[in-house]
Amino acid sequence: MKSFDEKLVLETINMIKLYNLDIRTVTMAISLRDCIDRDINVLCRRIREKILNHAQNLVKYAEEIGSSYAIPIVNKRIAITPISVIGESCDSYDYVKIAQTLDSVAKEVGVDFVGGYSALVEKGCTKGDLALIKSIPEALATTSRLCSSVNVGSSKAGINMDAILEVAETIKKSAELTKDTDGLGAAKFVCFCNSVSDNPFMAGAYCGYGEPEVALNVGVSGPGVVKAAIADLDKKADLGTLAKTIKNTAYKITSAGELVGRKLAAKLDIPFGVIDLSLAPTPAIGDSVAEIFQAMGLEHVGAHGTTAALAMLNDAVKKGGIMASSYVGGLSGAFIPVSEDAGMIEAATNGHLTFDKLEAMTSVCSVGLDMIAVPGDTPVTTIAGIIADEMAIGMINKKTTAVRIIPAIGKGVGDKVVFGGLLGEAPVMAVNSLSSADFVNRTGRIPAPIHSLNN
């Protein structure tokens, strides 16, 4: 195991008290491939037993390690093999029963979320994939800790437009079934292009086919720390100095996060997987990615120059993480969720941040269109068009992009949705009223770009 600079770790601990630095999540990835059975009851029993076997001490040990190092571990989570694969061998596709089993055992072991109610359909759907996608609205409406994701595109395979239409229907129905909680079901679902199998963050976490039997992946966050470091610079510091400051700060955060993650993995007697250094904000004041842009010199997020500032921020964060650890993975970069960031919420509410500007920013950020509320009467075909645009950005740029969008049923522009906790609240944003229907209703797959032929 690598050695750590104790001075840097102690300096990082001081950041906790002032700037909201924390371990945002420890996520135990568990393969469920050996749970497969034709009998749905046997399958569910095996899933429960395996998760209990590996994760029964996850929360207890995480709290002990967090306390001993005085670093808060905010969320404890589980990611499992995509359930479309696990449930496909059953005689009946009762995926909702599996969802409720996962939710029940998640409550039993005390984790905040379980991710992996997922399907990977970038090139096409099997019968099991399609059955899982159609079950997602009911699964999310009847559970409290389950998260779901579907990968609908990749730089190698192109974009599965048939799957996008199914996913758009899923999002709308999920919002309708949970309209009493402002569409919370849709807030726990995300669709991807180029999804990654070791991502510790929800709603997109799952245990990929190439992952070990069990592993611990860690997500560290510290937008407040980065903002403070930038604010301490001379106002006339050049951009190279600015980038170096961000990189050095990311190095410190990553070092502390890997130390805690490795200690917890050792205590659980499982392999350490990756550390994901993603600047994941919260609604708390001072824990905002948007405020970093103000410290960099922009009047507010959304001003011209925001995309350039985000590109530099994202790159410097990745460089600092890579220097600190040989096992940086997941998404690693800067998240720009609207509802989970106090500065983003303010910018969207005041009209500084538009839907189109958010889409432009996703070309350089860590993920994509995240936690955005749109009018409840937005057509399914428009939602599909939004998803297709974002997937195209990921496919062409060979990066992970995602869409987590919440149709606010019964609400329009100017209203807001409220989830509370880390999910926060968001203003309902306007979308383009022009129709996408004839385009998105064309069946088939958008072909992969020419750079996919790189073998």
Helix content: 40-55%
Radius of gyration: 21 Å
Structural class: alpha/beta
Span of the ends, CA to CA: 34 Å
Total number of helical segments? Answer: 16
Mean pLDDT: 90
Sheet with most strands = 12 strands, mixed
Looking at the structure, the CATH topology of the domain at 23-193 is Anaerobic Ribonucleotide-triphosphate Reductase Large Chain
Report the uncertain regions: none
Please give the CATH architecture of the domain at 23-193. Answer: Alpha-Beta Barrel
> In sequence order, what are the helices and strands, one letter per element?
HEHHEHHEHEEHHEEHHEHHEHHEHEEEHE
Q: Strand fraction band?
A: 15-25%
Number of strands: 14
